[in-house]
Amino acid sequence: MKLLLLCLGLSLVCAHHEDNHDIVTSNFDMLKISGEWHTILLASDVKEKIEEQGSMRMFMESIQALDNSSLLIICHKKINGECAELTSICDETEEEGVYSVSYDGYNKLYISEADYNDYLILYLMNSNKQKKTQVTALLARKPDVSTQMKKRFEELCKDHGIPKENILDMANAKTHLVSLWEIRGCWLTVLCSASADPCSHARGSHGAQASSAQ
Predict the structure, then answer these.
(1) Distance in angstroms (rounded) separating the CA atoms of residues 37 and 208
(2) Band (173; pLDDT cuts 50, 70, 90)
(3) Can you tell me the distance from the alpha carbon of 133 to that of 176, in angstroms, rounded to the nearest whole number?
(4) For 100-125, what is each residue's pLDDT tens digit?
(5) Which one, of 74, 69, 62, 72, lies nearest residue 29 by Cα?
(6) Where would one find the signal peptide in this protein (predicted)?
(7) Which domain holds residue 165?
(8) Is the dihedral of CA 155, 157, 160, 163 positive or negative?
(9) Would you say residue 153 lies in a domain?
(10) Number of domains in the chain
(11) CA-CA distance, 188 to 1, in Å (whole number)?
(12) Can you tell me the distance from the alpha carbon of 174 to that of 198, in angstroms, rounded to the nearest whole number?
């Protein structure tokens, strides 16, 4: 019986190890982080920063490690009602996995956690006119992630003091328009779905104006 329990315990430990062996929290290989990404969840302790017209509401397209250790980040943002492509250069700091970039003030970008083939979690601290704003983002190689992964992101946001209600599902950034039609005395409800943000599914330069984040 003891031998059976020991074998069961070892099996559980091995299974847990296999489930987590790809998760990296330090000594990141930036070449493996390079490539295309999708913004899945976006959160902030100042929610209006990531809502419609918010300066931090962006949709990631790609991250590229440069030869000088900086990062080239390409994302999309709605500007004046149209989708614009923003290009930013994030400079490496003396801290491992931490980068700096000027946009809407001064920012420190932290790579919190990664599974190079699956997801990436970023944490950003924005400083603008003595005001600080936290922003966290869950990126993925595919357009969506598991419910379990989203729950994990919620817990990480909680650790930063960001409540669940301040987390936006960017992978499904759509609004629903309801129209009522009267046909022969009966009301017919028509539910239509329209994209709330022209950048929610923007990839490449199609339909996006090029710009540079300053």
Answers:
(1) 17
(2) confident
(3) 30
(4) 999 999 999 999 999 999 999 999 99
(5) 69
(6) 1-15
(7) 15-175+195-212
(8) negative
(9) yes
(10) 1
(11) 66
(12) 10
Contact yes or no for 202/173 (Cβ under 8 A): no
Residues 141/119, Cβ–Cβ less than 8 Å = yes
Tokens of 136: 């966290």
Give the type of residue at 20: N
180 assigned to some structural domain? no
Cβ atoms of 178 and 191 closer than 8 Å = yes
CA angle 73, 149, 75 (to 5 degrees): 15
Dihedral over alpha carbons 84, 109, 144, 26 (to 10 degrees): 150
Tokens of 151: 């729950």
* Contacts of residue 8, Cβ cutoff 8 Å, sequence gap at least 6: none
- Comparing 34-38, 88-92, 191-195, 201-205, the range with the smallest average pLDDT is 191-195
What are the tens digits of pLDDT across the range 73-82? 999 999 988 9
Residue 92: which H helix or E strand, with range?
A: strand 82-92
Would 31 be classed as within a structural domain?
A: yes
pTM for the complete prediction?
0.78
Percent of the chain topping pLDDT 70: 74
Here the CATH number for the domain that contains residue 205 is: 2.40.128.20
- Encoding tokens for residue 191? 């539910």
Pair of tokens at residue 44: 């902030």
Please indicate, yes or no, if residue 158 is contained in any of the structural domains: yes
Pairing of strands 82-92, 209-212: parallel
